[in-house]
Design goal:
Number of domains: 2
CATH class of the largest domain: Alpha Beta
Radius of gyration: 31 Å
Distance between the termini: 52 Å
Length: about 525
């Protein structure tokens, strides 16, 4: 069995020798000789250490399969018989203790593994096993009162915590119901009035988003740290449907051949991808397309492709242009980047892209899952605050940062391929004018919020000045009626539907004149993107 799981030779040797020693120790000639039994016990202990070391080398998967707990159980069955055959009460107790150690290890693997991987059936099956082992241990060996008290406490926890959790789940209570978007618990005015409901919302939101990540995202084969939408996949996020088309973009199907269509590509982050929660919610690229068609009534088709990528920054999106974006022959690219790339403003303000709000993980015992989640959030926040406090600002010019250099590369690619480029600054729920009480509210989930505000100011300076240096680049200021309006955000950077509608309105106003001129002109027969940048 050890060979089947890839155990190294030291572990296989330990298991094999342990079996031999246990078998020999049961023979009458050896069992009645004390010195041989003692030597065999010592050898069995050493072999157990080798076997445990072999299992520990594969610890990355030891909790993922019940196979390992079964293996520990078989070792227990192998060791316990000598405990009844050898002479002397102490020797028998020592052999039995070694066997119980293996039994406890197997029970612990089953208990922890089923908890971590959310296997409720296995978890609740492991509880009576571990309780039985604790009771057996208490009755088999003389113990001081402190050890007996510790074992009794463990037994009570193994029985009481799951029972209490099940009771809480069965008894209806408004504070434990699933948080719904219509309650708007994420808004400051509601969250401050009811902190417990806000905490419930955060847990529900994170659990829902974790499901989305599993359903429609896969690791990018090139940029392995970034997930990308899986072509042709669908899922639900609260009451909203998230559909990925055959080209890997969110939204309706798009033909590779654009024909007479005026094509706009919205390039951005999760704020562009769209954290939609209600049935009638839509990402802003979809809203922008509706506004263009309804108000301009163009004579040729107009489509806005949602190329937003959750967790991706501008640098990663630049890597997609040649293979995924330019072959679609876009007439216009709208860049709405910000938060994910703020780390590229390093040297100007102390920033870090290390902090990620921990996701809520489902466990067999929800009570423990809630406690685990809150501890992980507190730990992540404290580590991030300590890291940021140790950093200092410098006098680096915003246009000398990596963010500015990356934008220049985007401008160069757009110019080379004869694509109109629109740069937009970034809007967040808070800004430099936000009251301190609101900043404190957002700091609970975003410990570096003050630094992010400073980074956002610098980012706005970068895109505005680069647009001024390149007259062919259009700049759209998204801040009016949006930046700092926390009622239009579900968190620090993701819009509510009202926020997405406002963004689409602002974007339409900013590009309207260009659209009127372009759509009125006949569609070009060729596009430079066919010749360059592929």
């Amino acid at each position: 069995m050890g060979a089947l799981v890839g155990m190294p030779w030291i572990g296989l040797g330990g298991l094999g020798l342990l079996g031999v020693v246990s078998a020999v120790a049961q023979t009458p000639r050896v069992a009645q000789r004390r010195h041989l039994c003692v030597g065999g016990l010592i050898l069995a202990g050493v072999c157990s250490l080798f076997a445990a070391a072999g299992l520990w080398t594969i610890r990355g998967s030891i909790l993922s399969d019940n196979y390992y707990s079964i293996l520990a159980g078989l070792v227990t069955v192998t060791i316990l018989p000598p405990g009844r055959a050898v002479a002397g009460a102490r020797l028998r107790a020592a052999w039995k203790g070694l066997g119980l150690l293996w039994a406890f290890w197997g029970g612990l693997i089953l208990l922890v593994g089923s908890y971590v991987h959310n296997r409720p059936a296995d978890f609740y099956a492991s509880l009576p096993i571990n309780v039985f082992l604790l009771i057996l241990c208490r009755r088999s060996f003389p113990m001081p009162s402190l050890a007996i008290q510790a074992i009794n406490t463990l037994i009570l926890l193994l029985i009481g915590v799951p029972f209490f959790d099940l009771t809480l789940r069965l008894v209806p209570h408004p504070a434990r119901k699933r948080a719904e978007p219509r309650e708007e618990l994420y808004l400051y005015r509601n969250a401050e009035r009811d902190p417990a409901s806000f905490a419930r919302w955060c847990s529900t939101f994170d659990a829902e988003w974790e499901k989305v990540v599993k359903d429609v995202f896969v690791p990018d084969p090139v940029r392995r740290g970034n997930p990308r939408p899986k072509a042709g996949s669908h899922t639900r996020f609260f009451d909203s449907t998230i559909s990925i088309n055959s080209l890997g973009f969110r939204g309706k199907e798009v033909s590779r051949e654009k024909g007479n269509t005026y094509r706009i590509v919205a390039l951005g982050e999760s704020t562009t991808f769209g954290i939609t929660m209600r049935e009638d919610d839509s990402p802003w690229p979809e809203l922008l397309e509706q506004i263009i068609c309804e108000r301009l009534r163009p004579q040729r088709p107009v489509e806005v492709i949602n190329a937003g990528m959750s967790c991706w920054d501008l640098t990663a999106n630049l890597g997609r242009l040649a293979a995924e974006i330019l072959p679609l022959r876009p007439d216009m690219i709208i860049s709405y980047h910000g938060y994910n790339g703020f780390g590229m403003i390093h040297g100007v303000v102390p920033l870090s892209n290390r902090y990620v709000v921990p996701l809520y993980r489902r466990r067999p015992v929800k009570l423990l899952a809630d406690c685990e989640y809150r501890l992980r959030v507190m730990n992540a926040v404290s580590r991030e605050q300590a890291w940021l406090s140790a950093r200092t600002s410098s006098s680096v010019s915003p246009l000398q940062t990596d963010y500015a250099r990356t934008y220049r590369e985007l401008i160069r690619i757009a110019q080379t391929n004869n694509v109109k480029l629109v740069l937009a600054n970034y809007s967040m729920a808070v800004n430099e004018n936000s009251p301190q009480r609101i900043l404190d509210f957002y700091r609970r989930r975003y410990p570096g919020v003050v630094y992010w505000i400073k980074a956002n100011q610098i980012h706005s300076t970068i895109v505005r000045q680069l647009a001024q240096q390149h007259p062919q680049v259009l700049f759209v200021d998204t801040h009016p009626n949006l930046d700092g309006d926390h009622d239009k955000f579900i968190d620090l950077m993701h819009f509510t539907q009202a926020g997405r509608q406002q963004f689409a309105e602002t974007m339409f106003a900013g590009i309207r004149d260009v659209l009127v001129g372009d759509i009125a002109a006949p569609a070009p027969e060729n596009n430079a993107a066919d010749e360059q940048g592929r």
